Amino acid sequence: MGSPGAAVGLRVVVAGVGRFGALHVRVWRELGADVVGLCDVDEQRLADVAAGCGGTAVSADLATLLARVEPDVVVVASDEATHAELTVTALGAGCHVFVEKPLAMSGPEAWRVAEAAAAAGREVVAGHISRFAAPYVRMQQTLRGGGIGRLCALRLRRDFSRQWFLSFGDRVHPVWESCIHDIDLAVSFAGRPVRRVSAVAAQVAEGEAPSVVSALLEFRGGVIATVESAWLVPDSAPQTLAGALALDGSIVAEAEVLGTDGILRQRLVADNLVEWTSSGTVVPDLSLWPEEDGTVGGALRQEVAYAIDVFLGRRPADRVPLEEACWGVEAAEAVIASLAAGAPVEVPDRGPGSERQR
After folding, report:
1. Cα Rg, the chain, nearest whole Å
2. 54-82: string of b/e by CB count within 10 Å (b at 16+)?
3. If exposure means fewest CB atoms within 10 Å of the residue's CB, which of 49, 80, 160, 324 is most exposed?
4. Which strands sit side by side in the sheet containing 73-76, from one edge to the other?
5. Residue 331's closest CA among 207, 224, 212?
6. Dihedral angle over CA of 54, 25, 41, 98, nearest 10
7. Residues in a beta bridge with 275
8. Torsion sign across C-alpha atoms 216, 284, 131, 332
9. How do residues 295-309 score in pLDDT, each as one tens digit?
10. Residue pair 96/13 in contact by the 8 Å Cβ criterion
11. Strand pairing class (291-292; 295-296)
């Protein structure tokens, strides 16, 4: 059995090589994987990323590429609307799949992926990176270790730069772009599916999509969670995304986990490291993908290393169970439905086997 996280000999195809897909190419290669194929509908983007991979096969069609190179793993980092279909295609070719969030854009699509994975006897790991960020890992460990007693409620907020909303925030419904992170964290802390959702929104920034969303999630078992997101952080706020993927702008997030015997609190923007330079102020989040001695570290590296170990049979798929990824998709879909209806929405119960007891 190899070293944890080592992917020597693992043949990987990356589907979708935009900004984040290209970062995946780098991380998988740094962990020892052989990236044997790249897939994207943008020919120039495909050529640019392939130029740094030395003879890697390329194609605009995933099925054609898989038949040609026969990989072990497909990394799906394409547009959100294509995630489920590309994942099912990869499973049909006998591949394990790492798929960026969201797993799918509807509950039926998500469970279709789960059924295809079971039929193929392959693993699917959904790319919920926050589960691997050090502050949330610590909070989860403390909760599961009984440090704050029984979980009662969660408060989760994640705000983004207004300029991001204007450039890409309404590419899909913002719930799939921003709220899905905290919906997944809520699912991971609660360990149960959501039974009811009530959501409201405000359309403040330009465009047709809501730039402010607030949702109340009621979980089976009694836990409640508030999930809020606003794409209104001004340009004057400090830059927070740093490391291997740096973007001008800010993510301002807070999380609270409330138990019968204590409370856990986390703030993404803190003053433990601040950089004041002639180009502006940066409060770098070093938990996601910091550069560490020439390689990508942080949560992204931990997430990919976890997926590699799952695919190679070194560990169970326990940190991002596929069932929980499906619950998160159902909850996000219910938030959007509640916004459209202007009323609470019930989430279908998939039966007594759908709960993981804490």
Report:
1. 20
2. eebbbbeebeebbeebebbbbbbbbebeb
3. 80
4. 57-59, 34-39, 11-15, 73-76, 96-100, 124-127
5. 224
6. 140
7. 282
8. positive
9. 999 999 999 999 999
10. no
11. antiparallel
Range 131-292+325-346 has CATH code 3.30.360.10: yes
Residue 94 one-letter amino acid:
G
Closest CA to 319 of 62, 120, 130: 130
Largest distance between two CA atoms of the chain:
59
User: Among 307, 315, 328, 345, which residue's Cα sits nearest to residue 188?
Assistant: 328
Q: Are strands 151-161 and 251-259 parallel, antiparallel or unpaired?
A: antiparallel
Distance (Å, whole) CA 183 – CA 353: 21
- To the nearest 10 degrees (0 to 180), the angle between helices 180-190 and 134-144 is 20
Q: Where are the domains of the chain?
A: 11-127, 131-292+325-346
- Rounded to an integer, what distance in angstroms lies between the CA atom of residue 171 and that of residue 147? 40
pLDDT score of 95 more than 90:
yes
307-356: pLDDT as tens digits: 999 999 999 999 999 999 999 999 999 999 999 999 999 998 874 444 44
Distances (CA, A) of 35 to 11, 89, 128: 6, 18, 22
Sheet containing strand 275-277, edge to edge, reads: 239-241, 280-285, 275-277
pLDDT band, residue 1 (cuts 50/70/90): low
Residue 128, both tokens? 């919920």
| Cβ(157)–Cβ(229) below 8 Å | yes
11-127 CATH pick, 2.40.160.20, 3.40.50.2000, 3.40.50.720, 3.40.630.30: 3.40.50.720
Q: Which two tokens stand for residue 287?
A: 């938990």
Q: Are 231 and 162 in contact (CB under 8 A)?
A: yes
